[in-house]
Design a protein that fits this description.
It contains 3 helices and 4 strands. It is an alpha+beta fold. The longest helix has 15 residues, at about 15-30. The model has no long low-confidence stretch (mean pLDDT about 95).
Length: about 90
């Protein structure tokens, strides 16, 4: 199983717009074959910081996810909302 933590820092005043852009990716990713879990959490101490917590059956499933239209649209739609580049950490928990 693959576990992904994506730390996302957004610009001040962009919270509502960011949350709106996450609706599509959350809904569609959860329907993907190989997706075990896909959730977004707000940091308890940093109001403009989120973490996307993902669990995937395999690296191949994760690779397929990154080629989907809802993933590429999310990346495109959030580019101007981010305070800095996403920090993505991937773990193999097999």
């Amino acid at each position: 199983m693959i576990f992904v933590l994506a730390n996302i820092s957004i610009k001040d005043g962009k919270k509502e717009e960011f949350l709106k852009t996450t609706e599509n990716i959350l809904k569609n990713t959860r329907l993907e074959d190989g997706c075990i879990s896909y959730k977004l959490y707000l940091d308890c101490e940093e109001d403009n910081t989120y973490v996307m917590v993902e669990q995937w059956r395999s690296d191949e499933d994760l690779d397929k996810h990154m080629e989907t239209s809802h993933f590429t649209k999310f990346v495109e739609d959030t580019t101007d909302l981010l305070a800095k580049d996403m920090e993505i950490n991937k773990f193999d928990v097999n």
